[in-house]
């Protein structure tokens, strides 16, 4: 309990690193969030709307197909689609919320709200 | 300051009684200095003691006059609020005169052989002063003495009426909040109520006179300097209206100086209220060993020179989950009940230590040490709260999308979804096929340069094989589309037809290249035929593209 025996306390994360951590974590988190939001909305009217808009803005079709292809990954419309998607959606949302959560914490610390 | 003759260990205690002590201690020589140059009365005494008794003495008793005792702020000694403004009300143009009532002699339980008293004043102007023993008056000081053989507990009223225009500021109350965060920051915020306790202002306040004449309102307070710790950052100075911009910050090597100018100058009886706050890095004040932490911070900090605080409240906010809190103070303070403070990302509240004290001066700026235990894992609770919040949001979306509130089943939407997914796949396959043709072109070009028939044949074989699989897939999808009753099936059929034509053209260009290499056809003719073939191919490709767009 003696003060002399103690060492100075340093934060677990160096405060100089807060900005970089914030940007990286939030970027990854937002990417996963966007990916997550594609799934439940896939093949709904909203999805078609977005497609029409994109195609009408003459996005290069190959590029567009490429992106959609990578994201939908052979989405099969079968009767068991709901269960298979649930696990995938839960997993993606977990990862997204993890990254977003930590990103928001470091954002708060960077701004000066030392929680 | 104190020198002992025979005393070994000096224990200081205040005594109010008037009984004589029979220790045998005698003050041989006393030099008393009363510093009345500010709004506080500081008394310093140099005493030479001698032990004329038989026994060993190991404690010394200091005595205080009964009238002055409530004003004692610090044993050194500093008295607050003893200089009374006289006259009590002055106009803006007048000087401020104050009266000090004290003792000519040292109020001591022991007899004094010889003593002198020197009084330092704030200015040269003295209205009146008591003349005991023919005192000498020099520039800014009066010297009384030497007085010989003064009995113990002797009192002789001293009254000095002189001019004192130094700032008579008093902090009527200050609340100092210190918030400790284990992420590396300590936030300090002080809410200060400031009063001018000099002579009250009589009559109006003329801003014009104040600015034009240099000696107008000479005893008023325009600004003062607050000295903050050296590593203070993000300093803010505000009140209920908002930020007060009439301030200057100067970062020096060993401190940070804030020159504070309130929104209006303070005359006698006027008061102001403001909030000043800053951040400190935690590594300068927080120490730890494993789970044990110790915070070493000043109980009260410098606000202005010769400060007087009537009432201090210190609130120390420790992180959530701090236990076994133990406080070491340099001087006695009264602790109130521990509170709980709820702020960002808190679940069960942060413990707050509350302490109060009255009548503090500059000499009370000393460190207090707070020991507590804190489990480092608890820091993780904060990010996990945010993660949980986000997860709940996503989970709600997952559930919401799976909810079906339609009263009747909408077959059209279902079919549309299915058709769309099939179209998606058709698109990918067709593009893959087009890619095949491009690949074939590359093979042909390479063949033209390398004349390697083997490579050409293998390329052609792969083309055939893959083309067959793709075409079969597309036909399968086409049948499914027809099953859904979509008109897109026809479009797919058209694409198939165009595609077969395209394939023919590709094969023909391949054959032409072979013939060129074999020498059966001349170069010019080959180039021409190649051009026509590619033209036709382009046409077909664009038509396929258009059809795909329409899907």
From TrEMBL, chain A:
Asked if the Swiss-Prot or TrEMBL record annotates the protein with the keyword Metal-binding, the reply is: no
- One cellular component term from this protein's GO annotations in UniProt: oligosaccharyltransferase complex
- Specify the protein's topology with respect to the membrane: Multi-pass membrane protein
Is Transmembrane helix tagged as a keyword?
A: yes
Give its localization: Membrane
Give the residue spans that cross the bilayer: 20-42, 90-113
* GO biological process terms held by the UniProt record: protein N-linked glycosylation
Q: In the record, which residues are listed under signal peptide? A: none
What does the protein in this record do?
Answer: Subunit of the oligosaccharyl transferase (OST) complex that catalyzes the initial transfer of a defined glycan (Glc(3)Man(9)GlcNAc(2) in eukaryotes) from the lipid carrier dolichol-pyrophosphate to an asparagine residue within an Asn-X-Ser/Thr consensus motif in nascent polypeptide chains, the first step in protein N-glycosylation. N-glycosylation occurs cotranslationally and the complex associates with the Sec61 complex at the channel-forming translocon complex that mediates protein translocation across the endoplasmic reticulum (ER). All subunits are required for a maximal enzyme activity.
Protein name as catalogued: Dolichyl-diphosphooligosaccharide-protein glycosyltransferase subunit TMEM258
Annotated organism of origin: Cyprinus carpio
UniProtKB/TrEMBL annotation, chain B:
Origin species: Cyprinus carpio (Common carp)
InterPro entries recorded: Ribophorin_I
Name of the protein described by the UniProt record: Dolichyl-diphosphooligosaccharide--protein glycosyltransferase subunit 1
Which positions carry the signal peptide feature in this UniProt record?
A: 1-22
Question: What broad class describes the main subcellular location of this protein?
Answer: endoplasmic reticulum
Keyword annotations? Endoplasmic reticulum, Membrane, Signal, Transmembrane, Transmembrane helix
BP GO annotations = protein N-linked glycosylation via asparagine
> How the protein assembles, per its UniProt entry?
Component of the oligosaccharyltransferase (OST) complex. OST exists in two different complex forms which contain common core subunits RPN1, RPN2, OST48, OST4, DAD1 and TMEM258, either STT3A or STT3B as catalytic subunits, and form-specific accessory subunits. STT3A complex assembly occurs through the formation of 3 subcomplexes. Subcomplex 1 contains RPN1 and TMEM258, subcomplex 2 contains the STT3A-specific subunits STT3A, DC2/OSTC, and KCP2 as well as the core subunit OST4, and subcomplex 3 contains RPN2, DAD1, and OST48.
């Amino acid at each position: 309990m003696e003060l002399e025996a103690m060492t100075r306390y340093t934060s677990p994360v160096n405060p100089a690193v807060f900005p970089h951590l914030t940007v990286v974590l939030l970027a990854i988190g937002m990417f996963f969030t966007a990916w997550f939001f594609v799934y439940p909305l896939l093949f709904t009217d909203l999805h078609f709307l977005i497609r029409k808009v994109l195609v009408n803005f003459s996005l290069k079709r190959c590029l567009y197909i490429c992106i959609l292809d990578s994201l939908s990954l052979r989405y099969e419309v079968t009767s068991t689609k709901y269960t298979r998607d649930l696990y995938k959606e839960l997993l993606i949302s977990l990862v997204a919320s993890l990254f977003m959560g930590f990103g928001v914490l470091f954002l708060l610390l960077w701004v000066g709200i030392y929680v | 300051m104190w020198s002992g003759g025979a005393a070994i260990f000096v224990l200081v205690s205040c005594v109010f009684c008037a009984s004589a002590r029979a220790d045998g201690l005698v003050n041989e020589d006393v030099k008393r200095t009363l510093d009345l140059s500010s709004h506080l009365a500081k008394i310093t005494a140099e005493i030479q003691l001698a032990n004329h008794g038989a026994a060993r003495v190991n404690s010394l008793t200091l005595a205080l006059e009964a009238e002055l005792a409530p004003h004692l702020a610090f044993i050194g000694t500093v008295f607050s609020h003893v200089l009374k403004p006289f006259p009590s009300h002055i106009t803006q143009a007048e000087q401020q005169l104050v009266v000090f009532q004290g003792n000519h002699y040292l109020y001591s339980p022991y007899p004094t052989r010889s003593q002198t008293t020197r009084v330092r004043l704030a200015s040269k102007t003295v209205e009146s002063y008591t003349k005991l023993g023919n005192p000498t008056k020099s520039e800014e000081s009066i010297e009384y003495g030497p007085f010989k053989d003064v009995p113990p507990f002797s009192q002789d009223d001293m009254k000095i009426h002189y001019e004192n225009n130094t700032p008579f500021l008093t902090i009527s109350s200050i609340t100092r909040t210190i918030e400790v965060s284990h992420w590396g920051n300590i936030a300090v915020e002080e809410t200060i109520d400031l009063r001018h306790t000099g002579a009250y202002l009589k009559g109006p306040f003329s801003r014009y006179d104040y600015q034009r004449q240099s000696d107008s309102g000479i005893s008023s307070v325009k600004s003062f300097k607050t000295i903050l710790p050296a590593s203070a950052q993000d300093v803010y100075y505000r009140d209920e209206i908002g930020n007060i911009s009439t301030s200057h910050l100067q970062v020096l090597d060993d401190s940070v100086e804030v020159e504070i100018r309130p929104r209006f100058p303070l005359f006698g009886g006027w008061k102001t209220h403001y909030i000043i706050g800053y951040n400190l890095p935690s590594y300068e004040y927080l120490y730890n060993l494993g789970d044990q932490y110790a915070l070493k911070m000043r109980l009260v900090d410098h606000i202005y020179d010769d400060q007087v605080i009537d009432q201090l409240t210190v609130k120390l906010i420790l992180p959530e989950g701090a236990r076994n809190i133990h406080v070491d103070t340099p001087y006695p303070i009264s602790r109130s009940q521990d509170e709980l403070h709820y702020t960002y990302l808190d679940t069960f509240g942060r413990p707050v230590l509350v302490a109060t004290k009255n009548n503090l001066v500059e000499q009370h700026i000393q460190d207090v040490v707070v020991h507590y235990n804190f489990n480092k894992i608890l820091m993780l609770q904060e990010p996990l709260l945010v993660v949980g919040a986000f997860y709940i949001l996503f989970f709600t979306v997952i559930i919401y999308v799976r909810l079906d509130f339609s009263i009747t089943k909408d077959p059209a939407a279902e079919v549309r979804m299915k058709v769309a997914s099939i179209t998606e796949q058709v698109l990918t396959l067709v593009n893959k096929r087009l890619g095949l043709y491009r690949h074939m072109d590359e093979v042909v070009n390479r063949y033209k340069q390398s004349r390697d028939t083997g490579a050409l044949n293998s390329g052609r074989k792969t083309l055939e094989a893959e083309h067959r699989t793709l075409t079969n897939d597309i036909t399968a999808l086409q049948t499914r589309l027809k099953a859904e009753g979509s008109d897109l099936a026809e479009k797919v059929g058209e694409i198939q037809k165009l595609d077969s034509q395209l394939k023919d053209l590709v094969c023909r260009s391949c054959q032409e290249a072979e013939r060129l290499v074999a020498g059966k056809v001349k170069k010019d003719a080959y180039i021409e035929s190649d051009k026509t073939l590619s033209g036709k191919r382009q046409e077909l490709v664009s038509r396929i593209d258009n059809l795909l767009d329409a899907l």
